[in-house]
Amino acid sequence: MSDDLRGLARVIVRLLPARIAERCFLPTYFDLLTDHLTGSGSPRRLTAATRSAVFHARVVGAGLECALRALNEAGQRSGATRARPGFRKGIDQMLTQDLRFALRMLWKNPGFTSVATIALALGIGANTAIFSIVHAVLLRPLPFHEPERILELTETARGGPITIAPPNLLDWKARNTSFSAIAAYDDAVATLTGAGEPEQIDVGLGDAELFPTLGIHSLAGRTFVADDMHTGAPPVVVLGYGTWQRRFGGDRTIVGRTLTFDGRQFEVIGIMPRGFSFPAGVDVWFPLKLTADEMAPNQRGAHYLNAVGRLKEGVTAEQAIADLARIEAEIAARYASVQGYGVWAMPLLDSMVGSVRRPLLMLLGAVGFVLLIACANVSSLLLARASARRTEIAVRCALGAGRWRIVRQLLAESVVLACAGGVCGVLLAAWGIRALDGLLPQDFPRADAVGVNLSVLSFSLLVSISTALAFGIAPSLYASRPDVAAFLKDARREGSAGLRHGSRRALIALEVALALVLLAGAGLALRSFARLTAVDPGFNPEGVLALELSVPDARYSDPADVARFYQQYVEALAAQPGVVAAGGVMRPPLTPRGFGGTFSIIGSEDNDKFTIQVRPATAGYFEALGIPLRRGRLFTPADRRGTSPVVLVSEEAARRFWPGKDPVGQALRLHVAISGDEPVREVAGVVGDVKLRGLESRPSPVAYVPHGQYASSAMTVFIRTHGDPSGFALVAKTQLALLDREVAPTRIRPAAAMIGSAVAQPRFRLVLLGLFATIALTLAAVGLYGMMAFSVSQRQGEIGIRMALGADRTQVMRLVLRQGLMPVAIGMAAGLLGAAALTQLLAGLLFEISPLDPATYLAVASVLGAVAAIACYIPARRATRVDPLVALRTE
Amino acid sequence: MSRRRIPEITHLQFLVLGMLRGAPHFGRGVRKELARHGVRRSGPAFYQMMARLEDAGLVAGEYDQKIVAGQIIKERLYGLTPAGAAAWAATRDFYLSKIAAFDPDEGLTHV
């Protein structure tokens, strides 16, 4: 936290003059920091986040006041305000006279004011909207006690993190010296009945250490204790605040009463406080009870647990990782199935948001570019305006106004413009955040708190003021040193000096360069997205309906009952008119979470070194999802408990583990058992590869086992139909109700939606990058058009003389176009170089496309060139229509 | 009799210099004391006033470190310079002389 606070102060200190920063701002900042740290700066009833936002706002406010005082001092030193001693009066003057005059001037130029405000609103609004996401996801601290001490723990295989085998986790807990607590957790779904409508709820499973590790105490009642974890212990449940309020109206007497989940009675032992949810989205918790079978040494290859650990005081993450690695090495020395595995740990926040950190920072950078373009645009407009106002300013100087007095007044106009842009920008952002809410992928972490809050408003205020200085300072300095004598002598030629000034062309070049970088980024994202959506997932989702469901353990405790239920269900579905095939699988394709472990090939010497994903599947699954059979046979209803154990392997598994051989007929033993020891299985066939974790993932080796021999209570059932699959949802539900009224599907959706979910994050990036690139292109085009139109209007006399002396329209057009397209060409050259450098940051986010893809660069350069040419052509054509007689008469 | 000149420091500056006569004070403490007299200044306004007193040589300021909630905090510590003490004394003497010369019936007997 402190780094965040000091970072803001450092920025302000750098922006302020040294004397003011050192002796005026810093002592104020440390006073505010003391108030903040001791809690005396704001009411104690405020949440930590709100107090932090208030503190930030106060620091920004102090920075602004110091900036105004610095300006006032500078003005006093220049002598402009000699007659008005006293800072309060000086500031009053700044805030009243200058601002009033600024408002009057802007009111008199509605066209300029509107264009500048819209440009700034787009820039500030886009920045505010993206910052609101960055703040909610990356900057907002986790709602746990000392969250920086909590680490997410994983095992690793082949360099990548995987879930943890229960016996290994027990060893970590018992033998580590770095953690004050280590907790295992998992998530699941349960149906709450008997208190209103049945409701499917995301639930968490945690051991007795889960809540102490997170540093969270219950709001009422208690959390889990070690006795709750025994398999014979009375069933208990802890309710989350949301469920407690929604289902039971906040009734505290619920503690001690029993509730029915999945057909079993659970005693409510506690209620968790508001805002607590872990894992994300979970609002009810059950004890994670591990059976003796699950903790047996032969389960060291079965990876399915998640874990968090709280570091002891003074222990670093590196020391903790080394400690766990030592334990893992000791385990590996005793058990072959653990050889090749490692350990890894990372801060819990990083593990939750690590996948979106880079895309979000990339988007924040992109909107920063949009804001820079907006600033350049407004700065360019102000320079043009300053040129037009040089006589006015010369008169002021002649009447005794000092340079700082002029700068101050012009800066006041910039501040008013920036504030107007800021207010409109925040409104735009508030609307944009609502739009983004629908665009955010469903699995986007910590997106629940995205919105406009005090931190976001402080950011907007800071951006607005920085923006005012960024676009206002150069035109103010430029306009405040007029050649008074020259302008007073020949006021009519006021435009020429401004015209010769290269600043506006430099700004246009900058706008074009930045717009090209954004266009290149958006172009690459578009091509990457197109390639990603063209990837063959290994199955055919067209005409397929997917149902996620889970049978309650209470009534389906025997695996044979579970297998029988699913077999009956898919057979009933397959018998319905219009249904081509039906079948189920545990953890369907395109699901981030896996289930797998090591296995042995019977007769091979390299046993226990291979890992494989395991998927229990029913007969009909491969036909329903259109996964092709390559060799051998598929599962049939006859593959059930008591018959010969079989397994199907994917093509990748066949290639990797039986290179150059036919795996059909080979024997293997999985080390991932749901209960008891796994038998030796014969490979009955080879099926096509499917994308397991995502469209961009490489094929993983998979072992499919018959659900009848390896029953799982949570399955996804696929129904291949003729026509629109959505129409079969009712049929699927009816058949389910006929089998068991108390089993309800968690989710029903077309299988094609699984593809949509898999590309949700790239689509989110593409839409935003495309939007920002469009805004950038529009702003650059408007800036270029504005510069050209102003230039032509100022040069009417000169063009008239040229035409009177014999220049034809083509020559005039060439002259004007050359002047306009020169900065565009320079900007495009710089932009191409910048894009080549900056799009390297996109490298990890692109799919099968190089950040230096020449076709993309050519396309975006052509688009930008065409837009720039149109923006120049319209004023150039107007220039060719200048009547020499009229122009000369004016001259 | 030599004529005393009107003091160049303001009432507020006189108050601040007076507070610093006994011992150096942190800026935070001076601000609180001013607040007790009904003088409320924002942080930047107060510290800018102190900076001006420093520039005028009436006050000497330096940063002092302390730990608050595990974090290093710097506080500006102000002490009175000899010039500051002289300015305060001169102002006090000026007003004392004016009070001494004040006759309730006649008004000021001399200026």
**N-end to C-end Cα span of chain B:** 11 Å
Output the CATH class name of chain B.
Mainly Alpha
Task: Output the helix-strand order of chain B.
Answer: HEHHEEHEE
Oligomer: heterodimer
Secondary structure category of chain A: alpha+beta
Unreliable stretches of chain A (pLDDT < 50, length at least 5) are 80-85, 494-500
Helix content of chain B: 40-55%
Q: What's the count of strands of chain B?
A: 5
Helix content of chain A: 40-55%
Q: Cα distance, first to last residue of chain A? A: 65 Å
Strand order in the sheet with the most strands of chain B: 1-3-2
State Rg of chain A: 34 Å
CATH-level-2 architecture of chain B: Orthogonal Bundle
Radius of gyration of chain B over all CA atoms, rounded: 17 Å
Unreliable stretches of chain B (pLDDT < 50, length at least 5) are none
Mean pLDDT of chain B: 85
Explain this structure to me?
The complex is a heterodimer of chains A (891) and B (111). Chain A is an alpha+beta fold and 891 residues long. Chain A has four domains: 1-78, no CATH class; 110-138 and 355-529 and 762-886, no CATH class; 147-353, no CATH class; 544-750, no CATH class. Chain A has 26 helices and 23 strands. In chain A, the strands form three sheets. Chain A has a six-stranded mixed beta barrel with strand order 3-4-9-6-8-7. In chain A, strands 15-16-21-18-20-19 form a six-stranded mixed β-barrel. Chain A has a four-stranded antiparallel sheet with strand order 14-22-13-23, sandwiched between helices. With 111 residues, chain B is an alpha+beta fold. Chain B has a single domain, classed as Arc Repressor Mutant, subunit A (Orthogonal Bundle). Chain B contains four helices and five strands, in the order H-E-H-H-E-E-H-E-E. Chain B has helices at 11-19, 27-36, 43-55, 82-100, and strands at 25-26, 59-68, 71-80, 102-103, 107-108. In chain B, strands 1-3-2 form a three-stranded antiparallel sheet. Chain B has a two-stranded antiparallel sheet with strand order 4-5. The longest helix of chain B is centred in the last third of the chain and has 19 residues, at 82-100. The model of chain B has no long low-confidence stretch (mean pLDDT 85). The A-B interface holds A 2, 19-20, 23-28, 30-34, 37-38, 62, 65-66, 69, 87-88 and B 27-28, 31, 42-48, 50-51, 54, 61, 68-69, 71, 73-76.
